[in-house]
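Supplementary Note 3. Input sequence used for the single-chain structure prediction.
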Amino acid sequence: MNNYFGFKEVKLFNAFILFVLVSIIIPSLIVDFNLTYSDNYNFLSLCSNITMFIFLLFMFRTSKDKVNELFKDFLRKVKFAEVLNVVITQVSISLGSVLLLVGILYFINPDNLNFMLNSGSDNVTTFSKFILYFLLVAISAPLVEELLFRAIFFKRMSRYFSTVISMIVSSLIFGFLHIELAVIGAIMFATSNCILYIKYKNILIPILTHFTNNLISVLPQMNFSSNSPILMTKDIAISALSIGFILFLFGMFLFIKFVLLNKNYLKYNF
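The predicted structure, written as C-alpha cells, is reproduced below.
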C-alpha cells in the first residue's frame, strides 16, 4: 500500500515482529501435535496466513474507501501483457533450474534421486484437499507475501538504502524463504515484483502477478489420481538437462530484458 491512497505506513520492525510471531505458531503446533507435512500442515499454514493478513489490514488502517480507490487505480494502470511476461519469466527460470538440478542429480546418484522423487508429499489427493491447497497457495500466499515483502520490507528499506539495494536484499530474503522451491526463480520473481510495485505504486499489480504465477503451479495438482511411481532414466535425465538449459536461458533473457526496459524506475523512490 502507499500514502497516495491514505494507508498508514507500517514500520519494518513491527512487520518483522508480526512475521516472526505468527511464523512460530505453526512449527510449535507441529511439534506439539506431531503433525506431518500433510493437509493438517496446509490447514495450519492457511490459518497462519489469514491471521497475518488480518493483522496487516489493521496495521495499514484499511477501509472500504481506500481499497476502492486502490482498485480503481489498479484498473487504470494494469497491463496484463506485462503481468504475463513476468509470470512466463518466473516459470521458465524455475522449471528450467529444477530440470537442470534433476538431470545433474541423476548422474550423481540415480537411486537416491528416484527415491526423492517418489517420497514427496501426497497431500493433494482429494478435491477438498485441493481446495485447501488452492486457498493456501493461490489466494493467501500472494496477499500476505506481497504486503510483507513489497509493501513493507522493500518499501521501508528503500527509505534508508537505494532502491537497487533494497530490491536485492528483500528479494534474497523472499527467495531463501522459498528454499523448498526453485530459489533462483523465486529471487528473480521477487525482483520483478519490486520493479512492478515501484513502477506503478500499486500493490495490487504485484499481487495479481503473484496470484497468476501460483495459480499455474496449483492447477496440475488437480490430477488427484496420479499416484504412479516416477522412474528417472538416463534418456529422461538427458532430456531434462537439455530442456532445462533452454528454459533457464529463455527465462533469464526475459528477466534481463524486463529489467533493462524498466531500469529508469530503479532511480525512483517512494
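The mean pLDDT is 86. DSSP finds ten helices and no strands in the chain.
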